[in-house]
Amino acid sequence: MAAFTDSISLYSMCCLLLLFICTTLFTFTAKSLGFSIPFTNSGSKIRAPPSPPALPIIGHLHLLGSVIPKCFQNLARLHGPLMQLRLGASTSLIVSNAQVAKEIYKTHDLNFCYRPQFGSSDYYQYKGSHFITAPYGPFWRFMKKLCVTQLLSPSQIGRFTHIRQQEIKSLLGSLLLCSSEGRSCDLSFKLTALTNNILCRMAMSTTCDDEEIHGLVREFLELGAKLSMGEVLGPLGKLDLFGYGKKLAKTVGKFDRIVETIMKEHEEKHDHMKGSEGGERKDMMDILLEVYRDPNAEVKLKRNDVKAFFLEILLAGTDTSSVALQWAIAEIINHPEVLKKLRAEIDSIVGTSRLVTESDVPDLMYLQAVVKEVLRLHPPAPFALRQSAQDCNVNGYDVKGESRTLLNVYAIMRDPQAWVNPEEFIPERFLDEINGGNGIGSQDFRYIPFGSGRRGCPGASLALSVIHITIAALIQCFDWKSKNGDKVDVEEGSGFSVGLAKPLVCYPMTRLNLV
Ligand code: HEM
């Protein structure tokens, strides 16, 4: 993770340098530079959101620090909860408090139901098959309905409880080995393997290890992030000067070949079992292939739509859940009083003679509060990216159609106007709510780790199932010690994501062997 974010910082510096050099050779139009045009489509003068003073060409790039969500949070303190930043040739609106988030997510939900397109999409074999960045239209609505009613529905998640339990037991087994040999373990690596394996098995009944899928998804994430940073170059980004676009196309090509093979295996299994489908558990690929074959489906899915969906959920769902788990263990090690309470709760509800299961989670109130607090303080997706369709008015300012909008989820959930001691890790703040008190309702836009509105995260229930049960099992079975002494170094990684800056390496010490 650290190497990845460092390489992005290096890349952005190269972009900056290149931008300076190239501006002596090229004359940009005002539009490509992202200068705001002070007129709405109807021709009247607009009141644009505030901006810090900008430098020619680079705009506000010089104001960026290493942890970007934090840096935007600091800028918002000076320039307000809706501000406009120009990073080279790319202009974005930044939303930094719950009131403005509510306007985007509720008042203007439909208008902001779009996502910006990034440079990486030019090199994407599945162009036109995106779900995450699909415009709000029939294809997106159809896929969203499939997610909610079938692919990521509570009953589909429930059907695969055994997969999560098996993968967690296999993780516990490897930790027991580390413990018996007195070795430290790289928990960041192990937790990412866990979330990848769970999602791959639920999606297409295969593990990522066997199929190299995990490596390809990681490569895609890294290259996609670098290409997106190239946005600051405007039209120059299209030249793919660093060759990242070609590499990305190659990565997707490899992914495509693997998933095509898995699809064919699923199709053969289906043909073989025709008429005897009885009690077979359908994975997500079985469900999508059924829709793909259905001549009367509301939307006719293409083969690429199916493959793109798997790439996208792996991109959206594995690192995010793993990052949440890493932060959770780091914070629990650094707060022994939280560990003590958590363990006392698990021991009293579950006991010490069997492993905690997902059906115990509704009774583990403190565990739920810990997870909520982890996602508040360390949102694995610190920005929700949206784009407006038409001109509108937000927080008293005129916002033009097609405005790229970043909701700074990180800043919103650390806003001192909305939270007491926002920078502190205090799970107790959520106990009232979990017990049915006056806490945070679904319409409270100060708590939005999964975004909100029509385009809110469809994988939230699955992510929460994995996070709850994994933390509970790791705390029930082990005591933990950081490799670097008493406390885990909780420095945040650089770049757009806020994972731990360094891998979480610690010593598990067996407390209960329940595998
Ligand atoms: C801790 C884990 C996760 C976090 C924090 C997270 C967070 C988010 C956020 C903030 C968004 C943008 C919402 C918005 O624009 O308002 C999002 C979208 C999305 N997430 Fe997640 N997510 C997680 C896990 C997952 C999982 C496990 C899956 C799938 C298996 C998933 C699939 C998606 C998809 C497909 C979208 C795009 C939805 C759309 O555009 O309609 N996520 N997620």
UniProtKB/TrEMBL annotation:
The keyword Nucleotide-binding does not apply. Heme binds at residue 457. CDD domains: CYP93. GO terms for molecular function: heme binding; iron ion binding; oxidoreductase activity, acting on paired donors, with incorporation or reduction of molecular oxygen, NAD(P)H as one donor, and incorporation of one atom of oxygen. Pfam families: p450. It comes from the Eukaryota. InterPro entries: Cyt_P450, Cyt_P450_CS, Cyt_P450_E_grp-I, Cyt_P450_sf, Plant_metabolite_P450s. It is a single-pass membrane protein. Transmembrane segments: none annotated. It is found in: Membrane. Its cofactor is heme. One of its GO terms (cellular component) is membrane. Keywords: Heme, Iron, Membrane, Metal-binding, Monooxygenase, Oxidoreductase, Transmembrane, Transmembrane helix. Belongs to the cytochrome P450 family. This is 3,9-dihydroxypterocarpan 6A-monooxygenase. It comes from Senna tora. The lineage of its organism: Eukaryota, Viridiplantae, Streptophyta, Embryophyta, Tracheophyta.
